Design the sequence.
């Protein structure tokens, strides 16, 4: 989704802004722009549709120079991707602004501003923000006051970076509903949507809280909370290095992140197991009390994180006996759900900033305990939850989630074990599961080093338009995730079904042009999956089956291609089986020549509805 970078320094900030934009490319965008206050105290701006490289090329032709500036990558919401809709937006050559989020009452504000003589040059909701600030700046003569008054008029979500030509060397930054960090340099300050944008210039960050407004100059930083009081916000040191977001030897971030999974899974376990038991405190100091008292679990998430939640439901209900619901956040937040007493709400999110998940969490108020499984420690979801477990996957740059997913699953496995300890899950079973978890990195390494067969299978999918994925039990959510991966990066339409549902409708689709990808482990459902595959084969379908190496699939014949996977316990199977499906989508996408890391229309962190 949109990305913001801003800087106030003694030096020319254009290269810093441009590099920041490059580092935010992974968030997803369709145009980019930079505005700086030049040495003659005028605003200079360059905007381009398409990649940041197009902007960089233009800056070669028309270099911008200035020590105060803002920059943006835009993911279109209101108005098509075009130069006039791209940020920064400027009013009367006086104020420049970049915005993430959506100003929901933009039509009303636009009408009022047009009546007051403001001229609009874009179709965006954002342009009302810059006009409103310029309006108040004319009245008050002070940029901070102008922003403070303007945001009171906005309904919706925003993170803003604002500069004004009459106040060079000053930037106002504020957030409500969209994330924004301040990077603290030596005699210079920066703003960005996330820390990765600023790692080449600083590792010291302040995470603005909801409603904060920051008044930033080279000499000072003053932060006001939403009540207008001056507040001290802690400076946090990031342990990420500038090259933490580098691709290294890999052709794509997605491939790098797939290969990082064995290490990441080891990291999830690190320091959280003692004598074969999950340490409750890994989730926070009050975790034991909550796990003891909870009567039901409600999981809320979106996309891939939702699929992780679906797997967890199988684990939690089957192994701990605790009732568990799972729902996509965009539905949960609007349907007035019933929450029983002593419910633990679990949100799952890579970014911790997903607008729907955050809104669903906020809607719960104080009616439940809130636990968040997340990859970004300073994110809004983490800050607004009672209990947390960090997945420690490191920055995930590929838009298609891979290591974030497997580490979420491992985190949920730890949660299941911790709750199970309070629910009579016997120690022997707990220890066996943990023992099996420690084996996972090695088993996944084996899959990664034997990917040739998966690559060959990908050839058969290069020219197809549709595919079906099937699985049963914990592997049904893995089929869903496999289909999502294929859709996201290869643009092939793919649907996933519980294998047993096929005959209730989808089997009508089966013919020789519609391949099926199936997953089957040794979990007691294998014979049923085999029967479902037979039903597909009998109708002329072709099947690509990832199956436990101990299962005999020879009877399925030549139209069922089988790739054996390491024998793992039923509990561990989802974490292992998603990996070949990730690789499979990747190889198909490579053959189709799509933009693997930044697929069309998608954003990494979905911070608007
Ligand atoms: C998965 O590949 C996607 N990037 C998407 O479905 C993602 O999982 C979803 O938007 C939720 O994001 P979150 O985990 O950051 O909340």
Sequence:
């Amino acid at each position: 989704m949109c990305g913001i970078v801003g800087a106030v320094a003694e030096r020319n900030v254009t290269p810093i802004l441009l590099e920041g934009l490059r580092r935010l490319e992974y968030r997803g965008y369709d145009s980019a722009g930079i505005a700086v206050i030049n040495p003659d105290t005028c605003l200079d701006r360059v905007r381009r549709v398409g990649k940041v490289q197009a902007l960089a090329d233009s800056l070669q032709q028309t270099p911008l120079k200035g020590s105060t500036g803002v920059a943006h990558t835009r993911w279109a919401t209101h108005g098509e991707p075009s130069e006039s809709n791209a940020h920064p937006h400027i009013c009367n050559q006086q104020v420049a602004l970049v915005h993430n989020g959506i100003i929901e009452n933009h039509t009303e504000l636009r009408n009022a501003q047009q009546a007051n003589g403001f001229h609009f040059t874009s179709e965006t909701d954002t342009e009302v923000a810059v006009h409103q600030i310029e309006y108040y700046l004319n009245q008050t003569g002070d940029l901070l006051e102008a922003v403070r008054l303007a945001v009171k008029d906005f309904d919706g979500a925003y993170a803003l970076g604002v500069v004004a030509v009459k106040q060079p060397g000053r930037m106002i930054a504020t957030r409500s509903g969209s994330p924004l960090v301040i990077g603290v340099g030596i005699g210079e300050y920066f703003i960005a949507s996330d820390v990765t944008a600023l790692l080449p210039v600083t590792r010291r960050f302040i995470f603005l809280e909801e409603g904060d407004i920051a008044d930033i100059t080279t000499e000072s930083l003053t932060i006001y909370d939403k009540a207008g009081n001056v507040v001290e916000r802690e400076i946090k040191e990031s342990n990420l290095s500038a090259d933490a977001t580098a691709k290294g030897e890999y052709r794509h971030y997605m491939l790098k992140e797939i290969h990082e999974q064995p290490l990441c899974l080891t990291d999830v376990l690190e320091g959280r197991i003692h004598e074969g038991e999950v340490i409750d405190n890994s989730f926070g100091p009050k975790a034991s009390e909550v796990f003891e008292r909870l009567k039901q679990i409600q999981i809320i998430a979106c996309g891939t994180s939702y699929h992780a939640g679906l797997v967890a439901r199988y684990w939690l209900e089957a192994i701990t006996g605790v009732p568990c619901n799972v729902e996509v956040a965009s539905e949960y937040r609007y349907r007035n759900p019933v929450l029983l007493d002593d419910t633990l709400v679990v949100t799952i999110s890579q970014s911790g900033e997903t607008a729907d998940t955050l809104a669903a969490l906020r809607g719960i108020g104080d009616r439940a305990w809130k636990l968040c499984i997340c990859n970004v420690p300073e994110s809004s979801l983490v800050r607004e939850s009672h209990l947390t477990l960090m997945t420690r996957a490191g920055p995930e740059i590929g838009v298609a989630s891979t290591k974030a997913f497997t580490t979420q699953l491992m985190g949920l496995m730890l949660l299941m074990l911790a709750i199970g300890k309070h629910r009579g899950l016997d120690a022997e079973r707990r220890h066996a599961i943990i023992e099996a978890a420690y084996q996972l990195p090695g088993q996944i390494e084996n899959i990664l080093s034997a990917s040739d067969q998966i690559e060959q299978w990908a050839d058969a999918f290069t020219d197809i338009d549709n595919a079906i994925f099937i699985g049963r039990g914990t592997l049904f959510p893995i089929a869903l995730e496999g289909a999502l991966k294929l859709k996201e990066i290869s643009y092939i339409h793919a649907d996933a079904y519980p294998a047993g549902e096929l005959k209730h409708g989808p089997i009508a689709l089966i013919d020789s042009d519609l391949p099926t990808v199936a997953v089957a482990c040794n979990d007691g459902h294998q014979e049923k999956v085999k029967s479902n595959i037979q039903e597909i084969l009998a109708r002329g379908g072709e099947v690509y089956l990832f199956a436990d190496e101990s299962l005999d699939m020879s009877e399925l014949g030549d139209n069922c291609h089988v790739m054996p996977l390491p024998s793992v316990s039923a509990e561990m199977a989802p974490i292992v089986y998603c990996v070949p499906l990730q690789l499979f989508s990747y190889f198909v996408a490579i053959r189709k020549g799509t933009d693997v890391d930044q697929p069309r229309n998608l954003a990494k962190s979905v911070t608007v509805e």
Q: What stands out?
A: Residues 253-448 form a domain with the Rossmann fold fold (CATH 3.40.50.10490). Residues 302-305, 349-351, 354, 357, 399-401, 488, 605-606 surround 2-deoxy-2-amino glucitol-6-phosphate (CB under 6 Å).
